[in-house]
Design goal:
GNAT_dom, alpha+beta, Bact_Acetyltransf
Length: 189
């Protein structure tokens, strides 16, 4: 049965270390499917190998959320996303350009990070649920603004959610290709 057409309920919760195997599967299918219209196979493979993946720091900090569904077949993770009070803009544990120093919420922007939705569960408001949870948590931590490194596939969603394009970045992947990332930001009202 196609789970995208089954009646289901959604639950938002914080990710745990036990979720990592399922999160890795979610990230892989999300990137390979949803990025295919925007990036080449070489860019997708390079990003999956060197940038994307679970960021365990987000989990340890309690800032990584998942949405799970209780479709009739089983409970499964169908979306994930987080925020951070650290300097790293994007990338999982395998990404070598990381800076885990803490940000100053009085002068710096919190980071919206690591949003992935299963292709069978797009257009159901799940990314919006995650984004609101992340923004609310960042506000509660004293941040007046947030920023992110958005993939091209995510830019329309973030723009519709009030994020403005700050700059485009060419990420050099270790397989010799480049991948465009759009740095976007939002100031809270």
């Amino acid at each position: 049965m196609d789970s995208s057409k089954s009646p289901s309920t959604f639950r938002l919760r914080k990710a745990t270390m036990e979720d990592i195997p399922e999160l890795n599967l979610l990230i892989d299918v999300s990137v390979r499917t949803l990025h295919a219209e925007y990036y080449t196979p070489d860019q997708i493979s390079g990003a999956l190998k060197h940038i994307y993946g679970v960021d365990t720091t987000l989990i340890h900090d309690g800032h990584y959320f998942i949405v799970e569904t209780s479709a009739p077949e089983k409970i499964q993770i169908v979306a994930s996303g987080g925020w951070s009070h650290r300097r790293t803009l994007y990338g999982g544990d395998r990404y070598m350009i990381r800076d885990d120093d803490l940000l100053d919420p009085a002068t710096e922007a919190g980071k919206i990070r690591a949003f992935f939705v299963h292709p069978n569960w797009t257009r159901k408001g799940l990314a919006g649920i995650l984004l609101r949870a992340c923004e609310d948590a960042a506000k509660a931590a004293g941040f007046a603004k947030v920023e992110m490194g958005a993939t091209l596939s995510g830019v329309p969603f973030y723009a519709a959610s009030g994020y403005k394009k700050l700059e485009e970045v060419d990420e050099h992947l270790e397989n010799g290709v480049m991948m465009k990332v759009v740095k976007m930001g939002k100031v809270f009202d």
